[in-house]
Amino acid sequence: MSKFRDLVIGTAILTALASPALAEKLGIGRPALPEEVAAWDKDVSPDGTGLPEGSGDVLTGEDLFSDNCASCHGEFGEGQGNWPKLAGGMDTLDEADPLKTLGSYWPHLSTAFDYVNRSMPFGNAQSLSPDEVYAITAYMLYNNDLVDEDFVLSKENFTEVVLPNSDGFILDDRDTVELPMFIREPCMENCKETVEITSHATVLDVTPQEAGSAPVEAVAETSAPEPAAKVEATDAAPAAPPAETPAVEAAPVVAAADPELIADGEKVFKKCAACHKVGDGAKNGAGPVMNGMIGRAAGTVDGFKYSKALTEMAAAGLVWDEASLQAFLENPRGFMKGTKMSFAGLKKEDDRAAVIAYLATFGD
Fold first, then answer.
1. DSSP class of 133
2. Is the distance from CB of 120 to CB of 133 less than 8 angstroms?
3. Contact (CB, 8 A) for 131 and 64
4. Are 281 and 270 in contact (CB under 8 A)?
């Protein structure tokens, strides 16, 4: 008890000494200088107040994001481990586990800019210049399909960017609307006639599950499915013979590349490595394994679930040769409408050629 009393007395003394009157009388402290205030006053408001001078484009932001942000958030904002996703989530706000990003949730671009400017990169906050923050923010907009690849974000056009959910928020009026509802005697027993479980923590991804266990559905009650009708062996139609897979004419394999080009490709491939794996023991991840990629019919990696867009192009005879890879890597979304891949593309032809040469070194 004595230690608590001493702590209270000590806190009271320090509070008294910190008052302006005593500070002036005892010569303790001084008013903060304008430059000292400015060093802490870094917040940016939705109307652009607080924005620094500067600008940055999408392609510059892509390189900066790869160097400073991708280790946690993935090369394309797809997230790594428990680090948050920064892209996607459109039309998910009415779901049990919505994905909140610039493209789906945040109403103001200043939210992203302000946070990056003051708190990122993790462990090295405020190491980015204003131009770099503008560029990274522009790249985040591009990854959410909100701007084109030639977009340049600056102080001048910042407030012209309107996010999809800009009208999805309302003013907080709980002090006048909800607070009066709770200013009454609290109910202590028998406050609700029935209690039902309407959701489970697994929906919010906060309850760990053992490997292989099925997720708990976020439903209070579900009806059992009707049992399938039994078919007697004598009534069953004879099984049709499996259809033969149409042969795909082998595309020309990429010509042998020089070691320097392959080495360059290995460096560029780091932008792809968050989703695609190559080499001995490589397994499917967010994207299919890339071993034996060159000259292979599209959509044929075992165990990987392809998008509808790729499946349709594969059925039409798409083969991953040098020409198709060049076109796809330059603009994945333009080459394949509806692709699940959020990668912005490799805009430099030399980078695309290097990656293709590098992939050609990996067989099945």
1. H
2. no
3. no
4. no
- Give the rounded distance of the alpha carbon of 123 from its chain centre: 19
Q: Which amino acid is at 117?
A: N
Write the DSSP assignment of 229-276 as a string of letters: PP--TTTSPPPPPPPPPPP-PPPPPPPP--HHHHHHHHHHGGGTTTT-
Nearest to 60 by CA among 116, 114, 136: 136
Measured distance CA(286)–CA(302) in Å, rounded: 14
With CA atoms as reference, report the closest residue to 50 among 114, 123, 119, 120. 114
pLDDT in tens, 314-347: 899 999 998 998 899 888 878 888 786 767 788 8
Rounded Cα gap, residues 88 and 78, in angstroms: 8
- The least confident of 212-216, 286-290, 340-344, 356-360 is 212-216
CA-only gyration radius of the chain, Å: 29
Torsion of CA 261, 264, 268, 269, to 10 degrees: 70
Q: Please tell me the distance from the alpha carbon of residue 197 to that of residue 355, in angstroms, as a whole number.
A: 52
Q: Shortest CA distance to 113 belongs to which of 60, 151, 161?
A: 161
Question: Residue 213 pLDDT > 80, yes or no?
Answer: no
Its pTM stands at 0.48
